[in-house]
Amino acid sequence: MKHCSSSRFSPNISRLYNLMRTLTQAQKRSFKKYVGFKEGKEGAGYLKLFDAINRFIRSEQEPAGLSDYLVKIQQFQDRTKTGQKSKYLYDKILESMRSQPEVSRLTTQLLGMLQDINFLFFKRLYDECFDLIKDTKKLAAEIGKETYILELFIWERRVYHASRSIVDLDARFRSMADEEQKLIQEIRQSLFYNTLANALFVSAKRDVPLPMHMETLMIELTKRNEQEVLKELPMRARFWYHNSLSFYHEILAKQQQKSSAPINSSINLQSALYHNEAMINLSEGPGKMVADEDTFFYDALVDNYINLCQRLGEYEKISGFEQRLISTKNEVQFLRSVTFHHINRLLGNHAYQEAADYITQNRLSNRLLFYENRISEGRLLALRHACGLIFYIVEQFEAASDWLAKNYQGQPSKNNPTFFLAGEFMYIISLFQTGTYKRDPVRPLINFQNKLRRRNVKISDFHKALFSTLKNVFQPKLPESKEEIRSLVEPVCNRILDENRNLIHFAPIAAWLEARLNGTKVADELMKYY
Fold it and tell me: Which residues contact 323 (CB under 8 A, 6 or more apart)?
């Protein structure tokens, strides 16, 4: 999704738009209640602007059109006042979200305790403030927030200066200096391994050989006794240590596979899996440093773990991990990780009916409704698309349309336009198959074309040919022979076969066209495309 940028209004309107489009419906409702409660009648004027921008977002128009849209609404023609209202609304949304922060329970508790320390100190309740500082340090250490502990040392100094004798000051400041130096050393270790892991990640993604100095460093690191290294490291540094070695062994495995005489890379992949598993155990251990504190990173970690297990055929490990998630009632990770990878593995193995049964037996449709706001948008879209695709392939088109509608009905274009277009076409075919638009079967296609024009989406010659072919299949103008239909279908299908890499998302559409033409199954026709 593009960010809004407009010269017609101040940057405040752009910032407000970009913030509002990230809010869930629940967060928008919560904000309106918050403003109504805090501001009363005075807030109603600001909510008019909120509602106007929200309507614009829901209308699926391009961000660049927001300025013209607001000008048409008479009460927002004054650019200066609208800019001021936008800044106020932006600040109020952030303020309201502080009451429901998207961080872990322990981090929320820590931040609240820091605010309480500030309050108690300036109320000169020094003994209470000092006790709270000790408790807050303990919590910060538990969840690996070393930098917050440094800040707490500053507060402790202020309390001692304000309320303790010179003798107490002298003794405590000496011991405090030693504690701080130890803490700074731990932070340095964490930063060292964090920086190393980041550098290795970049090398892995760029698929380039490691620089000589980094190669030498990693060789030396792998020679050291792991237990001795870990004994010296704080919790967060241990995590980045394993992260570095996991990336390093994956890089080695990739180099082995690409060599002129490919070597069995399973040993390095096993090592990468070992270190990945160690990270998951650390993440889910005391304090849940990553599992709760950095959910996006933890999601990537789990994905990589399952991918490595699949590459090595370690399906028992995947099953064990699945059972662990079930036992800990981590429903979000079960849905976004285990379920997603399991479905895609079945898709890759052409086990379409087994995948459909898995979706049905696990009641994924109902379960996702409860947790969709806690799963990243990209993964949620991919998961729904995969479920819709599976039911489409096994020709359960009513279930396919239900899944695909959640992604494509009334939704704006996503970052991957090819993925979006293919999914929308499958959704329209599912509607045709279920007879939803029996009287006017081409209507969804025409609506889709109009929607793409409104969004200024560039339509290629291939897409135009696909639109034309589907219109003729849905509602032929004349009774045509099978050969005449074939003359329309074959060029589209051959184009997908020839440009498989670029048009692979359209293979299910080609398979449906051929299955309809040949009287066969979609799943059978799909085999030649994958």
Answer: none
- Are the C-beta atoms of residues 388 and 407 closer than 8 Å to each other? yes
CA distance 258 to 262: 6
CA nearest 117: which of 135, 139, 132?
A: 132
Distance CA 192, CA 186 (A): 10
Query: DSSP letter at 408?
Result: H
Q: What is the pLDDT of residue 6?
A: 43
Per-residue CA distances from 174 to 87, 168, 413 (Å) = 48, 10, 61
* Beta carbons of 160 and 173 less than 8 angstroms apart: yes
**DSSP code at position 143:** T
User: If you search the block for the tokens 């993440």, which residue do you land on?
Assistant: 283
- Cβ atoms of residues 303 and 277 within 8 Å: no
3-class SS shares of the chain: helix, strand, coil, % to 5 = 80, 0, 20
Which ranges of 207-234 would DSSP assign to H, the alpha helix? 212-223, 226-232
In the chain, which stretches have pLDDT less than 50?
1, 5-7, 287, 412-414
- Kindly tell me the burial class for residue 22, based on how many C-beta atoms sit within 10 Å of its own C-beta (0-12, 13-18, 19 or more): exposed
DSSP 23: -
Q: Residue 72: exposed, middle, or buried by beta-carbon count in 10 A (0-12, 13-18, 19+)?
A: exposed
Rounded CA-CA distance 478/466 in Å is: 19
Instruction: Give residues with Cβ within 8 angstroms of 389, minimum separation 6.
Output: 347, 400, 426, 508
Who's near 281: CB < 8 A, 6+ residues apart? none
- Name the amino acid, one letter, at 493: C
- Beta-strand ranges (E) seen in 55-129 are none
Half-sphere exposure of 338 (CA within 13 A, CB side): 22
HSE-up of 241 (CA within 13 Å, CB side)?
22
Q: How many Å apart are CA 238 and CA 84, to the nearest integer?
A: 48
Q: How many residues does the chain have?
A: 530
For the CA atoms of 303, 306, 307, 312, what is the dihedral angle to 10 degrees? 160
CA atoms within 13 A on the CB side of 82: 26
Report the alpha-carbon distance of residue 273 to residue 291 in Å, rounded.
18
pTM: 0.69
Residues contacting residue 292 through CB under 8 Å, at least 6 positions apart: 104, 105, 106, 107
Class of residue 97 by CB neighbours under 10 A (exposed 0-12, middle 13-18, buried 19+): middle
Question: pLDDT at position 277, please?
Answer: 92
Give 342-375 pLDDT, tens digit per residue: 898 899 899 999 999 999 999 998 888 888 877 8
Cβ-proximal residues to 27 (8 Å cutoff; 6+ apart), any chain: 97, 100
